[in-house]
Amino acid sequence: MARTTRFPEAINIPVTTDMKRRLKSAASKQKKDVTGLVREMLQRALDEDAAVDGLDVVTSTVRRTVRSELKITENRLAKIAAKAAHAAAVYERCRGEGSGAP
């Protein structure tokens, strides 16, 4: 079978009798040949897979960026809490010294 320049490669895929019947039926309904229908199905599946992979990359990048930005805020809040605790301790100590308590 001669290959066209548009589709220079070919693959052979074993299928069940039922799959072949269903492919022929679907192709007939869509007024396409089985080869064209299978090619479109493969292309759609590959495109969907690529989109999912792309989404995974975007999701992980967003998560990494958010985590990094939140870390900055966490560190700032920890420093503020430490200063507040220190200030409270100093206040209590000063308050105790002024009342004559040991």
Summarize the structure.
InterPro entries: Ribbon_hlx_hlx. The protein is mainly α. The chain has a domain at 33-98.
Characterization of this structure:
The structure is a single chain. This protein has a domain at 33-98. With 102 residues, the chain is mainly alpha-helical. It has helices at residues 17-29, 34-98.
Please give a handful of descriptors for the protein shown.
mainly alpha; 76% helix; 2 helices
Succession of helices and strands:
HH
Distance linking N and C termini: 102 Å
| CA-based gyration radius | 34 Å
User: How much of the sequence is in beta strands?
Assistant: under 5%
The low-confidence runs, each spanning 5 or more residues with pLDDT under 50, are: none
- Major sheet summary line: none
Helix content: over 70%
Tell me the structural class: mainly alpha
Silhouette:
rod-shaped
Please, how many helices? Answer: 2
Count of distinct strands: 0
Average pLDDT works out at 88
InterPro entries: Ribbon_hlx_hlx (IPR010985)
Question: Topology of this structure?
Answer:
Blueprint: H1 17-29, H2 34-98
Helix pairs in contact: 1-2
